[in-house]
Amino acid sequence: MTETLTMHRPTTHPAVRTSAASLPVLVGIETRKSLSTRSGKALAAAAVVLPSAAMGLAALSGDPFGSASGPIAAVGIFAALMLMALGVLSTAGEWTHKSVQTTFLLVPQRGRVLTAKALSLALMGAVLAAVATAASAGVLALTFGGDPSWDGALVAMTTVTVAGAAFAVIGAGVGAALGNAPAALTGLYVVVLGVIPVAGVFQPHIASWVDLNNSALLLAQGQEETKAAVVMAGWVMVSTVAGALVTRRRSVA
């Protein structure tokens, strides 16, 4: 009897390699995207330069400051407000210009994209705010007479740095939620700079729990620190969650 032996070639499967970019790579991409447009570059430059210019203009008044922390905090929040616009454009701008289709085609996991945007903006906001507050502090030291007290200046500068990161992330969250850059910019600034301050005239206790600007100023000057920190953290959380929920459900078609 003849036996027939059949040789089977062993089946091998090539190793599957993921092509998904790592989170640090995505953060770098989002940072370059934010700073590659004219509007992004202009906002970044303005956030650094204008606070120092404002401090210099204040010097022309000839009125010396008793403490350095107040003016440093004020011009620092000015920088943070401009960084908020940078955050809006990073998310809402993609929907407005339809580039979001390419973004989510390359990285379908929308949560990873939003996380990368938030981390990128927090980093850029902190760095730009830190540079802005350091420059404005330098202008204050060189131009103002009367030897203002520098007690609390380091706290003010640190708070401004944190506020720069927080405001940028808040802008990104609101921009992601609305998906329209002009609407997000207009609505956010009207609420933060108009509606809440006016509401504070009639309902100061209630308004104080949602007043983002005033909370940042108080925190920078070491006043009502716990309440101010809660208000800022609340803005970051609510805007980020709202942006994530809406983005997950919005069609990119």
Tally the helices: what do you get?
A: 10
Question: What is the CA–CA distance across the termini?
Answer: 69 Å
**Number of DSSP E strands:** 0
State the secondary-structure class.
mainly alpha
The largest pleated sheet is described as: none
Describe the structure.
With 253 residues, this protein is mainly α. The protein has one domain. Helix content is 75%, strand content 0%. The N and C termini lie far apart (69 Å). Residues 1-8 and 10-18 have low confidence and may be disordered.
Summarize the structure.
With 253 residues, the protein is mainly α.
Write the layout of secondary structure elements.
Blueprint: H1 23-34, H2 38-59, H3 69-96, H4 100-106, H5 110-143, H6 153-178, H7 181-202, H8 204-207, H9 212-220, H10 225-249
Helix pairs in contact: 1-5, 2-3, 2-5, 3-5, 3-6, 3-9, 5-6, 5-10, 6-7, 6-10, 9-10
Core attributes:
single chain, 253 residues, mainly alpha, 10 helices, globular, disordered N terminus
